[in-house]
């Protein structure tokens, strides 16, 4: 990872921490010193932080496309420092409204910051590092958020620090973040003709409609919006939950957020590790399901010994969920209007937060529901989101689980991932060494890859049939008659023309000797008279695994060598006119030590 990204990460994490530190400082001061009502103060503070995002996110996204993101980054950090400096006289006034006004201004600065910090990441790191970068960035950001929320409580209750001391420390941190911003290299403007508009809602709707032809981009955007709303509802309820269930004071309630911070940081780091060279969409349903379980459990447990690990697990689930959503948006959003898209997502995300604030006020002040009941209702909302994610991503979830199991045996290294198209159809042609080949190939890309599978394997491995159905395997048998073979080849052809990735093993069977067998010519007919590229692919160091014929008939036996290192090399695309001999030569050349 480039050094410039680390400066970006430090600066944005400091910004997240300062935003939430000042919010909690304001809430604690107004409740503890000025003696205002807790739930009303929380609801107003949350609204003041959210409304600027609704007003300015679209404009911020457009400006992000029109001007250099690194220049905007520096300007916004100066605005952050300005807000903190004028907060000193606001604090001295000993009135609520000046602090609440600064809270609004600071949120406005953050509204312009969001599209910039998200949009600049793909300009600083390579695409294969985006998931890992988002894991680090999300972990640092949420860690900053939770530290910012909990630090005022710690400073007031343990260190007995004054509010002016805490504000001074925040100002010094802001200066450090500003200095880091100056270390980010200048980036070019993406779209000079992009023009800001004051039509807030129509622009936000138009930007989201632009994603409709890109189904997965739209789903990632909606997933991020739903996550923001659920997280905001949980965050507001946790303060009251800490007081009513955990028996903590308002000042000490921030300690619970530290546990969530540990979980989020761990979850984001783990998500980055699990997404070494791809974006693992299957983590989204798993993370959302984990959040649902945690929310329901928090609604029924009684002891701190149960609450503490549940909060860590909730943070872990949140980190697993949000990282792939952010990484996918960054990787697939068009560079020319990436800022506009992030601005729209931010607008709707904070719209969901406003809805959460209203819902929390309704639950607490109108219906007078307990903190436990609010937590159970949050779990119900999360359950709906989990069900939606599982229904939309059953194949990706199954793929993730299966590939994680296969990685208990293998350590997979992929070269040439840039040769795999992000969109559109392509025929992957690979050598065939073991029964785990298909799963290994599935693990190298976030895109589903439809395998062409022998019908004998499908019928014999009944326990694998659900997985074959989820990945939409195309069944074939060498003894099928000409008409049946033509139908199978046409099915594969149609899948390619519809934009799918299809993998075929033209040897027709596993190698018995470790040497590549002659390629059959059937795949030539699949791509004939099309513009579908052929991607040569070589699987290395699988001969000798328990799923190969090295020890005789492959089967489930304890491997003699754990964590076998498997090398996957993806070659440059070949034209659809390439012959079986030419493709086999290309696959064989990838096995050479110097092949890239």
Main features:
20 helices, Glycerol-3-phosphate (1)-acyltransferase, alpha/beta, 596 residues, single chain, 7-stranded mixed β-sheet, Growth Hormone, Chain: A
Descriptive notes:
Strands 1-7-6-2-5-3-4 form a seven-stranded mixed beta sheet. The chain is of the alpha/beta class and 596 residues long. The radius of gyration is 27 Å and the shape is elongated. It has 20 helices and seven strands. It has two domains: 390 residues, Growth Hormone, Chain: A (Up-down Bundle), CATH 1.20.1250.20; 187 residues, 3-Layer(aba) Sandwich (Glycerol-3-phosphate (1)-acyltransferase).
Mass-distribution shape: elongated
Instruction: Say how many strands there are.
Output: 7
Widest beta sheet: strand line-up: 1-7-6-2-5-3-4
> Percentage of helical residues?
55-70%
Radius of gyration: 27 Å
Q: Give the end-to-end Cα distance, rounded to a whole number of Å.
A: 21 Å
Strand content: 5-15%
Structural class: alpha/beta
Could you tell me the CATH topology label of the largest domain.
Answer: Growth Hormone, Chain: A
- Tell me, rounded to a whole number, the average pLDDT: 83
Query: Would you state the CATH class of the largest domain?
Result: Mainly Alpha
Q: Which CATH architecture of the largest domain is right?
A: Up-down Bundle
Our count of domains comes out at: 2
Topology record:
Layout: H1 3-33, H2 38-66, H3 69-92, H4 96-124, H5 130-157, H6 163-181, H7 200-209, H8 215-244, H9 254-274, H10 283-298, H11 304-332, H12 338-366, H13 371-392, H14 394-406, E1 410-415, E2 426-430, H15 437-442, E3 449-454, H16 455-460, H17 465-470, E4 474-476, H18 482-497, E5 501-504, H19 522-527, E6 534-540, E7 564-570, H20 580-589
Helix pairs in contact: 1-2, 1-4, 1-5, 1-6, 2-4, 2-12, 3-4, 3-6, 4-12, 5-9, 5-11, 7-12, 8-11, 8-12, 8-13, 9-11, 10-11, 10-13
């Amino acid at each position: 990872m480039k050094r410039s990204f680390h400066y970006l990460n430090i600066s944005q994490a400091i910004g997240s921490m300062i935003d939430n530190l000042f919010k909690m400082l304001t809430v604690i001061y107004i409740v503890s010193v000025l003696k205002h009502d807790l739930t009303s103060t929380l609801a107003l503070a949350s609204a003041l932080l959210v409304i600027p995002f609704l007003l300015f996110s679209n404009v911020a996204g457009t400006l992000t496309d029109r001007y250099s993101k690194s220049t905007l980054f520096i300007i916004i950090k100066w605005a952050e420092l300005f807000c903190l400096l004028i907060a000193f006289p606001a604090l001295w006034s000993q009135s609520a409204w000046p602090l609440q006004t600064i809270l609004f201004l600071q949120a406005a600065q953050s509204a312009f910051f969001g599209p910039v910090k998200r949009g600049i990441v793909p300009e600083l790191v390579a695409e294969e590092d985006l998931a890992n970068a988002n894991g680090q960035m999300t972990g640092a950001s949420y860690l900053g958020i939770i530290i910012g929320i909990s630090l005022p409580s710690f400073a007031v209750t343990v260190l007995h620090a004054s509010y002016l001391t805490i504000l001074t420390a925040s100002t010094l941190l802001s200066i450090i973040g500003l200095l880091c911003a100056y270390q980010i290299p200048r980036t070019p403007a993406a779209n000079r003709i992009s023009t800001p508009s004051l039509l807030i809602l129509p622009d936000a709707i138009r930007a989201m409609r632009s994603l409709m032809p890109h189904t997965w981009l739209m789903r990632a955007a909606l997933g991020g919006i739903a996550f923001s709303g659920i997280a905001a509802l949980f965050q507001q309820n946790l303060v009251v939950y800490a007081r009513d269930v955990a028996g903590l004071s308002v000042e000490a309630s921030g300690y619970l957020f530290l546990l969530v911070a540990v979980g989020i940081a761990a979850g984001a780091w783990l998500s980055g590790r699990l997404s070494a060279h791809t974006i693992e969409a299957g983590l989204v349903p798993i993370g959302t399901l984990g959040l649902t379980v945690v929310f329901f459990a928090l609604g029924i447990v009684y002891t701190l010994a149960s609450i503490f690990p549940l909060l860590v697990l909730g943070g872990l689930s949140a980190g697993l969920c949000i990282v792939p959503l952010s990484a996918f948006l960054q990787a697939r959003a068009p560079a020319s209007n990436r800022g506009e898209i992030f601005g729209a997502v931010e607008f709707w995300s904070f719209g969901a937060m406003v809805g959460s604030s209203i819902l929390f006020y309704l639950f607490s002040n109108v219906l007078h529901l307990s903190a436990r009941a609010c937590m159970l209702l949050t779990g119900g909302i999360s359950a709906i989101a989990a069900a939606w994610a599982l229904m939309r991503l059953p194949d990706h979830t199954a793929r993730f689980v299966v590939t994680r199991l296969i990685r208990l045996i293998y350590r997979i290294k992929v070269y040439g991932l840039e040769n795999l198209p992000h969109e559109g159809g392509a025929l992957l042609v690979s050598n065939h060494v073991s029964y785990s080949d298909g799963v290994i190939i599935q693990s190298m890309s976030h895109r589903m890859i439809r395998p062409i599978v022998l019908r004998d394997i499908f019928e014999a491995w009944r326990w694998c049939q659900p997985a074959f159905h989820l990945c939409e395997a195309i069944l074939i048998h060498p003894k099928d008659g000409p008409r049946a073979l033509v139908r199978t080849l046409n099915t594969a052809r149609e899948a390619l023309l519809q934009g799918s990735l299809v993998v075929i093993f033209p040897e027709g069977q596993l190698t018995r000797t470790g040497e590549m067998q002659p390629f059959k010519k059937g795949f030539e007919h699949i791509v004939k008279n099309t513009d579908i590229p052929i991607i040569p692919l070589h699987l290395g160091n699988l001969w000798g695994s328990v799923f190969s014929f090295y020890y005789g008939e492959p089967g489930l036996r304890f491997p003699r060598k754990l964590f076998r290192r498997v090398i996957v090399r993806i070659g440059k695309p070949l034209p659809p006119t390439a012959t079986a001999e030419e493709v086999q030569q290309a696959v064989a050349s990838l096995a050479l030590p110097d092949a890239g």
